[in-house]
Amino acid sequence: MIGTIEALPSIPGLMMALLLTSATVCALIGVTVVLTRVARTIAHAREHKQREKVRPLLLDIFDGNANFTLPRAELRALIRLAAESATQVRGEDRDALTSWLTAQQFHRECLRRMKSPFALTRARALDRFAPIASLAPGAIERMLSDRDPRVRSLAAQVAGRSGMKSLVPALLHSAEAPRSIPARIVLMAVLRAAPSTIADFGGTPVDGNDRVRAMALDLAGQLNLVDARRAIEAGLDSPSEFVRLASIRSIQRLGSPLSLPALQKMSTYSAYEHSHAQVAIYELQVG
After folding, report:
1. 131 pLDDT exceeds 50?
2. How many angstroms from the chain centroid is the CA of residue 276?
3. Of 105, 154, 215, 267, which residue is 20 to 30 A from 77 by alpha carbon distance?
4. What stretches pass through the bilayer (predicted)?
5. Cα–Cα distance between 268 and 238 in angstroms, integer?
6. Whole-angstrom Cα distance, residue 181 to residue 186?
7. What percentage of the chain carries pLDDT values higher than 70?
8. Are 270 and 282 spatial neighbours (Cβ–Cβ below 8 Å)?
9. Mean pLDDT value across residues 148-162
10. pLDDT tens per residue across span 7-66
11. Contact criterion met (CB below 8 Å) for 246 and 217
């Protein structure tokens, strides 16, 4: 009892010590945050200054006069600037930038960072790699099944922006893969890749997965691929309503009277499907 009474006066002192410790920790955290922000501001300002200094050299790269020597920091700034600019230009200017980036081994650094355990690092490397993605289509295809959904979606967008027609089958399958990519992103990526023949779709127009097959046939119509007509007509006999409706839509888009017989003999299994088929028949008949 006496020991308990003697301990009571020490409680306010303990509380004061805890408060002082908490205040000290909070102050240290605040100072750390401020110092971090200041350091980032200084770094961004230095990077901006370097980028503006080397920006005129982009014109030399466009003209094929890239025989210059730069300090390491300025060279890295120019590489980052060239990579960003390559996504905004087309034709010979883009070819000049990608050739120069390749000569600087930029792709090797990106490929290395795309294997990072951190999703943000992989995403940044993938985005920077976009202008020269055609150098390593296998790497982009692997990223379509990345463990992070945002990285997977970015990989699909990069494949589309880069016009990687060889990845069209992989893109379509990624919409139904265990590590899936949203169908709307896949569809937009294929449209941007702009395949010019049904051959670019590989086996997806007859795929065993009805949703993959439906997307392939629907896209063939949106891209107005005339050589896809027979594959699209074959979809009218599919047991899947998804595939049959996709085929009807694509036949309407192609507008070929040669598809009339296939439409007229198809079996419909709902009033909704029947009405769509009849509309398509009428449009083909009146031209």
Report:
1. yes
2. 34
3. 154
4. 14-36
5. 11
6. 7
7. 89
8. no
9. 95
10. 445 666 777 777 777 777 777 787 777 666 665 666 556 666 676 777 888 888 888 887
11. yes
What is d(CA 165, CA 185) in angstroms, rounded to the nearest whole number?
16
Q: How far apart are CA 187 and CA 193, in angstroms?
A: 10
Enumerate residues 6+ apart whose C-beta is below 8 A from 49: none
Task: Write the secondary structure of the chain as one string of H (helix), E (strand) and C (coil).
Answer: CHHHHHHCCHHHHHHHHHHHHHHHHHHHHHHHHHHHHHHHHHHHHHHHHHHHHHCCHHHHHHCCCCCCCCCHHHHHHHHHHHHHHHCCCCHHHHHHHHHHHHHCCHHHHHHHHCCCCCHHHHHHHHHHHHHHHHHCHHHHHHHCCCCCHHHHHHHHHHHHHCCCHHHHHHHHHHCCCCCCCCHHHHHHHHHHHCCCCHHHHCCHHHCCCHHHHHHHHHHHHHCCCHHHHHHHHHHHHCCCHHHHHHHHHHHHHHCCHHHHHHHHHCCCCCHHHHHHHHHHHHHHHHC
Q: What are the tokens at 152?
A: 């997977």
- For 243, the token pair is 């595939």
Q: Which residue has the higher pLDDT, 265 or 58?
A: 265
The dihedral formed by the CA atoms of 156, 157, 162 and 164, expressed in degrees to the nearest 10: 30
Q: Compute the distance between CA of residue 250 and CA of residue 225 in angstroms, rounded to an integer.
A: 9
Tokens standing for residue 3: 């020991």
